[in-house]
UniProtKB/TrEMBL annotation:
Residues 449-482 are annotated as: Disordered. Residues 63-439 form the Circularly permuted ATP-grasp type domain. InterPro entries: ATP-dep_Glu-Cys_Ligase-2, CP_ATPgrasp_2, UCP005522. This is Circularly permuted ATP-grasp type 2 domain-containing protein. Gene3D superfamilies: 3.30.1490.270, 3.40.50.11290. Signal peptide: none annotated. Pfam families: CP_ATPgrasp_2 (PF14403). Residues 470-482 have a biased composition (Low complexity). It comes from the Bacteria.
Length: 482
């Protein structure tokens, strides 16, 4: 919110509101927001802790702000990155030219759990594999954004981005109207248009779109229903669908109805028991055959996860150069692959300084934050790395900026990240902003909702050039995402 010269331009309106009304008014608004979210039923499931896993995601009422010029720069980099990731997925299941050119090791693809062999030789409509991406960003300075992760499978959290904005409009109508905020409410319309553009070759007429959910036990079930409702389409489970002569139908009260595009939130392994895991009760027998026959589109494509594997991540800048002939606009965080002897030796010698992650993990699980870890935890991770080095990567703990957050005893700095959502159809569409996740515990770098993190509304303001975080010396992490 502030630098040495005072309040940054983008935060001037927020700072003025707080000065006039005080922290007590913010606390009252937070209580009002909790009641609103509880009434609407905005929950997130957390497993493995006993008791009722459904809980509200904490919502911080101080927005995270980006100036329009900052966002435009980010949007160009996001567009470039998603185009390269999609080109990589297409190449992986075709000629693997990037491997032949020596830019990506063959073993990283052939031995990767996310590599979907049934996709070899098949290209989805318009060659789009990754229709919905969530790119996790962190920031270290006024002009320095880093990509922390690429999410090309079933990125979640966009419903919280939309609900956070709706909450802010209700809680602070005058404050919102006083800022020239870039809107986000049109995301469902953009998503639906992107999915319709992905209609399969054998679709005739207006494509019928549906959202395929694993069911109400899934942690993001609220989001599946929310997005289906916002798009005006059906939300279906595997049992609601059947395949006949390579055509997918959903059961309705008026009889079977053909489905052309499925926004699927079911993992690859559970999609089709005839092709993947035979014991799966979540998928639809024969749906992969219908997909290959050109009678249904699955978004995102099976096997798209090969592009967001953490062991593949270090090679994304090279993908941009190889497929697009351009230099990357967004930087990668330096990454050590523990399966490499030299990298592993460095990681084992510096566990107290690094962040160690599972190469195929998510949700903040299976992670060691070196500077905040104990000697015993470091020893445990060293044993894990030696036992299965291919399962781990490591990154330095960057000096990342912070944003103002309403804490227990007033306003305090907390680390955040940013997950913008990128849609790819006939064109690339990005709603300005994204989901900001915030690490609510002081000093914590873990922002995931499953690990106790919260969320903020993300404002892209049409005027002002403010930088949203403290100096790198003050901070350690930020993101916008879900």
């Amino acid at each position: 919110m502030q630098d040495a010269a005072g309040v940054r331009a983008a935060y001037a309106g927020i700072a003025g509101w707080i000065a006039r009304h005080g922290v007590g008014a913010l606390a009252a608004k937070r209580t009002e927001a909790e009641a609103l979210f509880r009434r609407v039923g905005i929950t997130f499931a957390v497993y493995g802790e006993g008791g009722d896993p459904e809980r509200l995601i904490p919502f911080d009422v101080i927005p995270r702000i980006l100036a329009r010029a900052e966002w435009d720069r980010l949007a160009r980099g996001l567009t470039q990155r998603v185009k390269a990731l999609n080109a990589f997925i297409a190449d992986v299941y075709a000629g693997q030219e990037i491997v032949k050119a020596g830019r990506v090791p063959a073993a990283l693809i052939a031995e990767n759990e996310a590599f979907c062999r049934p996709m070899i030789g098949f290209a989805p409509p318009a060659g789009v594999y990754c229709h919905i991406s969530g790119i996790d960003l962190v920031r270290t300075g006024p002009d320095d954004f880093y990509v922390l992760e690429d999410n090309c499978r079933t990125p979640s959290g966009v419903s919280y981005m939309l609900e956070n904005r709706e909450a802010m409009l209700r809680l602070f109508p005058t404050l919102c109207s006083d800022h020239r905020l870039a809107p986000v409410s049109h995301y469902p319309e953009e998503l639906l248009e992107t999915l319709k553009e992905a209609a399969p070759p054998n679709c005739t007429g207006t494509p019928c779109v549906a959202v395929l959910t694993p069911g109400h036990f899934n942690s993001a079930y609220y989001e599946h229903c929310f997005l289906a409702d916002e798009m005006g389409v059906e939300v279906v489970e595997g049992a609601d669908l059947f395949v006949e002569q390579d055509v997918v139908y959903m059961r309705t009260t008026a009889g079977p109805k053909r489905v052309d595009v499925l926004y699927r939130r079911v993992d690859d392994d559970f999609l089709d028991p005839k092709v993947f895991r035979p014991e799966s009760m979540l998928g639809v027998p024969g749906i992969f055959g219908a997909y290959r026959a050109g009678n249904v589109t699955l978004a995102n494509a099976p096997g798209a996860g090969i592009a967001d594997d953490k062991a593949i991540y270090p090679f994304v800048p090279e993908m941009i150069r190889f497929y697009l002939g351009e230099e990357p606009l967004l930087q990668n965080v330096p990454t050590y692959l523990c399966e490499r002897d030299e990298d592993r030796a460095y990681v084992l010698a510096n566990l107290d300084k690094l962040v160690v992650k599972l190469a195929r993990g998510s949700g903040g699980y299976g992670m060691l934050v070196g500077p905040h870890s104990t000697t015993e935890q470091q020893a445990e991770f060293a044993a894990r790395i030696r036992a299965k080095p291919q399962d781990y990567i490591a990154q330095p703990t960057l000096a990342l900026s912070t944003v103002p957050t309403l804490a227990e005893h007033g306003i305090a700095s907390r680390h955040v990240d940013l997950r913008p959502y990128v849609l790819m159809g006939k064109e690339v569409r990005i709603v300005p902003g994204g989901l900001t996740r915030v690490a609510l515990r002081e000093g914590s770098l873990v922002v995931n909702s499953s690990q106790g993190g919260g969320t903020k509304d993300t404002w892209v303001v049409e005027d002002g050039t403010g930088f949203d975080g403290g100096s790198p010396s003050q901070s350690q992490s930020q993101r916008q995402g879900g």
